[in-house]
Amino acid sequence: SQTIVEESEEVEERVEDTPLPANMKKHIKAKHLVEKAKKIVNESNKRIEACKLLLESNLNAYGNAKSELEKGGLDACVLLLNQLGYKTEEDEVEKTTPVFETKDGVKPIVLKDVSSGKFSGFIYALLGGIATAIGMVYLATEKLEMTLNVTKVPSEDVMQSILAWFSTIIGMQENVAVGASVLGAIVLVVMILIYVIRVSLKGRSNLHFAVKQFVEAELYTEQKSNCKQETDKIDTHIKDAIETMKTYEVLLNEQKGKLQRILYIEGSKEKSAGYHDKSFLEIRETKDLIHTINDFMNISMSDEGKLSAKSVLYLQNAKDQIDKTLQRFY
Questions:
Q1: What's the count of helices (H) and strands (E) in the chain, helices before strands?
Q2: Residue 87 class from Cβ within 10 Å (0-12 exposed, 13-18 middle, 19+ buried)?
Q3: Phi-psi bin for 227: left (phi > 0), alpha (psi -120 to 50), beta?
Q4: Residues 6+ apart with CB under 8 A from 297
Q5: Are 47 and 222 in contact (CB under 8 A)?
Q6: 288 in helix, strand or coil?
Q7: Confidence of residue 215 (pLDDT cuts 50, 70, 90)
Q8: Which of 17, 45, 44, 20 lies closest to 207, judged by CA?
Q9: SS3 of 106, please?
Q10: Cβ proximity of 318 and 244 under 8 Å
């Protein structure tokens, strides 16, 4: 009991500016802890839902940017390279890798309310009272050397004799009224004791359960707490990816015009040596741009539900390729 109280006080200190009174009933403390556990779990779940909505919004924006990139120059450049005799490896790869897959290894937590034990205490007290009354009547018949026929209702005289005997317990002469009061008092005391013990034990059990449940709720929220930090990383990564893809859209749209000029002026050659050196440089530059951005787009951004280090690396490679391309122009 002392251990449970110490645990509950330690838990309260973590969630309360003002601890609950030490003399507060255990059941009330248990209910308070259950409500606190529900609150922190609900807040955690709300943050998780917000993370999911943000991720969904980011993935939609990423999908739109990818579609714009393909329409805005990527697909056209791939086609032009094919016509110029340079088939890209990406044409032969079926793109089925999901952009981002979430993984939640934490099982949902179900918090249960605690009951006061009053109803079950009343039932136990009632059953105990009945058992006590039967036992006391049996004791009286033994003392009176009577044998009751349990298949029949005792006669009024027999009942009065039994009830009258109970008055002798307190040192009085046999008296039906006093004996009935004594029996009733004994049964009532037993019922009260059973009820009090049941409610007390239930309160102690409730407090232990509530403390255990609160600790589980804290562990659950702690395991979920990295959602915000991880979502921020993913959010930054996707936004960076979208800006990079927009830059590729501009560059590939420019390369598309150059490839169209090369195809129109020089035609399709069987060997690279057949193209003008500057033309071959533009073809190779276009291939490098397509290869680098496709490397990034064709892998998942997630690894075990978190931002993939490989995706971060490939995005950086794509940005480096942009810098390399721009260096030719400036």
A1: 9, 2
A2: exposed
A3: alpha
A4: 66, 95, 245
A5: no
A6: helix
A7: confident
A8: 20
A9: coil
A10: yes
Question: Which residues sit opposite 307 in a β-bridge?
Answer: 302
Nearest to 181 by CA among 199, 166, 192: 166
For the stretch 244-280, pLDDT in tens is 999 999 999 999 999 999 999 988 887 767 888 899 8
Contact criterion met (CB below 8 Å) for 259 and 77: yes
Write down the pTM of the prediction. 0.64
Which residues make Cβ contacts (< 8 Å) with residue 31, sequence separation at least 6? 113, 114, 206, 210
Q: How would you classify residue 73: left for phi > 0, otherwise alpha for psi between -120 and 50, otherwise beta?
A: left
* Residue recorded with tokens 């004996």: 179
306 phi and psi angles, rounded to 5 deg: -115, 170
Distance of CA 209 to the CA centre of its chain: 20
pLDDT of residue 43 exceeding 60, the answer is yes
> What tens digit of pLDDT does each residue of 62-73 get?
999 999 999 989
Place of tokens 């094919």: 82
Q: Which two tokens stand for residue 1?
A: 């009991």
Q: What is the pLDDT of residue 34?
A: 85
